[in-house]
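User: When convenient, might I ask for sequence and structure tokens for a protein?

AI:
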Amino acid sequence: MPSGAPSRPKPRNWIPRSKPTCNPWASEGGTVSISTEYLERCITSLETGVELITQADPSDKLYDVYRSAVIKEFELTLEQSGKLLRRALLPYFSSKKKLDELIFVEYFKHAANHGMIDVGTAERWALYRKNRNSTAHDYGLQFVEQTLPLLPGFVQDARALLAVLQRIDDDTLA
């Protein structure tokens, strides 16, 4: 705001916020707490969707419903996995700002560098992200041809990442 300009009145319920004294993502003691329940639900829903779409007849209307559900769960699981992994990586960075400079696939590269996952797994997550970006607005045949074959492996990798994240969370609670 330019100097000399009148300041806006504060709302009645306005309370000045103090700056956090430590990392706002970290719980007491500087460790990071990771809630994995939503990711687990996403993975379970995706597994169910994959099972249903593989059993459905492509000419049936339910096939389209299952395809839409599987696409959405794939996207949700992918995004939630990245968010939680990002949170798990925070202790390895000097600041949240440094972590914010990374892009999605770099979270997985750093996770491999820190022994959370192996390099092959990080490469598969990069493939999943690339596939998601190329089919993001394609809910038709291209998705079926490119993404459906990846989903069983994706579900396995998501379950493995979930276990890693739960182990990290358990270690921070101990």
